[in-house]
Request: fold
Amino acid sequence: QVQLVESGGGVVQPGRSLRLSCAASGFTFSSYGMHWVRQAPGKGLEWVAVIWYDGSNKYYVDSVKGRFTISRDNSKNTLFLQMNSLRAEDTAVYYCARDYGAVYEYWGQGTLVTVSS
Amino acid sequence: EIVMTQSPATLSVSPGERATLSCRASQSVNSNLAWYQQKPGQAPRLLIYVASTRATGIPARFSGSGSGTEFTLTISSLQSEDFAVYYCQQYNNWPRTFGQGTKVEIK
Reply:
């Protein structure tokens, strides 16, 4: 069965960096685009970034452009989100999700990132 | 950026009753509209895509309609497990955007 398991969250000071990972299993990872979606505590969902199945294209929400980088290692079935220059407003649960015709059919359980001094 | 606006913010419904949730886009998204359900402490679950197609395993009591800028999610007869927050999302343009959510609570 499809499984997506995020890791790498934690408490980090403003301005510092963090790298999230999403380990995929149960499907051919290299055939699917992958997304990061976040949810601030008590708030709604915000799409963050997408990477094409082969890494050839990437898109970001404006609020993270230049600070976050999405990448993938298809040989290790793993998706990444490198987050630099973190701000308090980046505090959220970060979910990875598998693309299915541009919607999100499978989601991980999420990893919490808290940006605080 | 396309702004998605959901109404109402909270919907109080008795079990067995019908629930109608609305989603409006600030510009046309054609039929590129999805609905998700989220329960506390859980990841969202895909319910509907292409405005009206149920995702795998989604019960027939969930139905979606609309195109362009106006969309509706209808739950024909609410079950206890349907009390949750529902989000619409457009995938016609970048960035993908979600509505702020409608909470369906027990009346």
